[in-house]
């Protein structure tokens, strides 16, 4: 039986943000400060998203894991501290870049930004993969899907609406058409109508016309599957 994966949608969104920003960095001429600003905004958005994600995991997911596997929970909390160290170093390099004056300096500093972001990307891809493997194993062994969903709902309730809306856009960009349809079905079945309508608008904005048309077809067919 397929179990509820609390990391499924958010990790896809976070990976999409990492990949998108990495591509932008590869295309950026850091000697051109105006062009580089777009890349720096993306980096700051990524760092903000990951910092918030780690905070919410530490507040809601880790206590559930710690009840049965305290050493495992502690190891992931230490990884979150390491992640913060890496992100702070990246922020410091960005500050240095923003205080450069000459194109040559900006090019050198831009290379350092790209290398530092790559370190951040690799660390977090590995970290999320470990979470999906090890933390899910503990959650599935000791909690029902309903209990895990309840934890997820508590976590979501602690997130400001504007952050949820931004994350929902990245989720919609990052998932398959079938996953998008199942997500919409679940929201329709469990949330107020205005929440479903807003997510439908997000789907229409973020999906291609063909994919959105397919979602509409799926919505009329069957009950939602767990994602």
Q: Count of DSSP helices?
A: 9
Strand content: under 5%
Q: What would the principal axes of the Cα set say about the shape?
A: globular
- Tell me the span between the first and last alpha carbons: 12 Å
Number of strands: 0
Secondary-structure element sequence? Answer: HHHHHHHHH
Classification by helices and strands: mainly alpha
CATH homologous superfamily identity of the largest domain: nmb1532 protein domain like
Walkthrough of the structure:
The protein is mostly helical and 227 residues long. It has 2 domains: 8-160, nmb1532 protein domain like (Four Helix Bundle (Hemerythrin (Met), subunit A), Up-down Bundle); 175-227, no CATH class. 83% of the residues lie in helices and 0% in strands. It has 9 helices and no strands. It has helices at 8-27, 33-66, 70-98, 103-142, 145-157, 161-174, 177-190, 193-206, 209-219. Helix 2 (33-66) packs across helix 5 (145-157). The radius of gyration is 19 Å and the shape is globular. The model has no long low-confidence stretch (mean pLDDT 95).
Question: Layout of helices and strands, plus pairs?
Answer:
Layout: H1 8-27, H2 33-66, H3 70-98, H4 103-142, H5 145-157, H6 161-174, H7 177-190, H8 193-206, H9 209-219
Q: Which structural traits does this protein have?
A:
227 residues, mainly alpha, 9 helices, Hemerythrin HHE cation binding domain-containing protein
In short:
The protein has 227 residues and is mainly alpha-helical.
